[in-house]
Protein backbone atom coordinates (compact mmCIF):
# COMPACT_ATOMS: atom_id res chain seq x y z
CA UNK A 1 0.00 0.00 0.00
CA UNK A 2 1.41 3.38 -0.96
CA UNK A 3 1.51 6.39 1.33
CA UNK A 4 -1.30 7.98 -0.69
CA UNK A 5 -3.48 4.87 -0.42
CA UNK A 6 -2.94 4.61 3.34
CA UNK A 7 -3.75 8.30 3.88
CA UNK A 8 -6.84 7.97 1.68
CA UNK A 9 -7.93 4.99 3.76
CA UNK A 10 -7.44 6.88 7.04
CA UNK A 11 -9.42 9.87 5.77
CA UNK A 12 -12.29 7.81 4.36
CA UNK A 13 -12.57 5.88 7.64
CA UNK A 14 -12.50 9.03 9.78
CA UNK A 15 -15.06 10.91 7.67
CA UNK A 16 -17.17 7.91 6.66
CA UNK A 17 -16.65 8.53 2.94
CA UNK A 18 -16.47 6.26 -0.09
CA UNK A 19 -12.94 5.43 -1.27
CA UNK A 20 -13.38 7.26 -4.58
CA UNK A 21 -14.28 10.52 -2.84
CA UNK A 22 -10.73 11.15 -1.60
CA UNK A 23 -8.12 11.85 -4.28
CA UNK A 24 -4.64 13.37 -4.12
CA UNK A 25 -6.07 16.71 -5.25
CA UNK A 26 -8.87 16.71 -2.68
CA UNK A 27 -8.85 19.80 -0.47
CA UNK A 28 -9.49 18.41 2.99
CA UNK A 29 -11.32 21.43 4.40
CA UNK A 30 -13.25 22.53 1.30
CA UNK A 31 -13.95 19.44 -0.80
CA UNK A 32 -14.88 16.98 1.95
CA UNK A 33 -15.98 19.46 4.60
CA UNK A 34 -13.60 18.28 7.32
CA UNK A 35 -13.83 20.56 10.34
CA UNK A 36 -10.95 21.29 12.70
CA UNK A 37 -11.79 18.31 14.91
CA UNK A 38 -11.86 15.98 11.89
CA UNK A 39 -8.54 17.34 10.67
CA UNK A 40 -7.04 16.95 14.15
CA UNK A 41 -8.08 13.29 14.25
CA UNK A 42 -6.86 12.63 10.71
CA UNK A 43 -3.49 14.14 11.55
CA UNK A 44 -3.28 12.10 14.77
CA UNK A 45 -4.06 8.92 12.83
CA UNK A 46 -1.39 9.74 10.24
CA UNK A 47 1.17 10.55 12.93
CA UNK A 48 0.47 7.20 14.62
CA UNK A 49 0.50 5.24 11.37
CA UNK A 50 3.76 6.68 10.06
CA UNK A 51 5.47 7.45 13.40
CA UNK A 52 6.00 11.12 12.56
CA UNK A 53 4.94 14.44 14.00
CA UNK A 54 3.07 16.93 11.83
CA UNK A 55 3.77 20.43 13.08
CA UNK A 56 2.56 22.65 10.24
CA UNK A 57 -1.12 21.74 9.99
CA UNK A 58 -1.93 25.18 8.58
CA UNK A 59 0.17 24.43 5.49
CA UNK A 60 -1.73 21.24 4.75
CA UNK A 61 -4.67 21.76 2.43
CA UNK A 62 -4.84 18.77 0.11
CA UNK A 63 -4.36 15.05 0.49
CA UNK A 64 -1.21 15.41 -1.63
CA UNK A 65 0.15 17.92 0.92
CA UNK A 66 -0.19 15.20 3.56
CA UNK A 67 1.48 12.62 1.33
CA UNK A 68 4.38 14.98 0.56
CA UNK A 69 4.81 15.80 4.26
CA UNK A 70 4.83 12.14 5.28
CA UNK A 71 7.24 11.17 2.48
CA UNK A 72 9.64 13.99 3.45
CA UNK A 73 9.55 13.20 7.18
CA UNK A 74 9.26 9.44 7.63
CA UNK A 75 12.29 7.31 8.34
From TrEMBL:
Residue stretches in coiled coil: none
Carrier domain span: 1-74
Keyword set includes tRNA processing: no
Entry PTM: 4'-phosphopantetheine is transferred from CoA to a specific serine of apo-ACP by AcpS. This modification is essential for activity because fatty acids are bound in thioester linkage to the sulfhydryl of the prosthetic group.
SUPFAM superfamilies: ACP-like (SSF47336)
GO annotation (BP), single: lipid A biosynthetic process
Subcellular compartments: Cytoplasm
Keywords per UniProt: Cytoplasm, Fatty acid biosynthesis, Fatty acid metabolism, Lipid biosynthesis, Lipid metabolism, Phosphopantetheine, Phosphoprotein
Gene3D superfamilies, per database record: ACP-like
Protein origin, superkingdom: Bacteria
Role played: Carrier of the growing fatty acid chain in fatty acid biosynthesis.
Family membership noted in the UniProt record: Belongs to the acyl carrier protein (ACP) family.
Protein name: Acyl carrier protein
Lineage of the species this protein comes from: Bacteria, Bacillati, Bacillota, Bacilli, Lactobacillales
Amino acid sequence: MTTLEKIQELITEQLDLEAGEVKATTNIREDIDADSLDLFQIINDIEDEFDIEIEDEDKINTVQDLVDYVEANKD
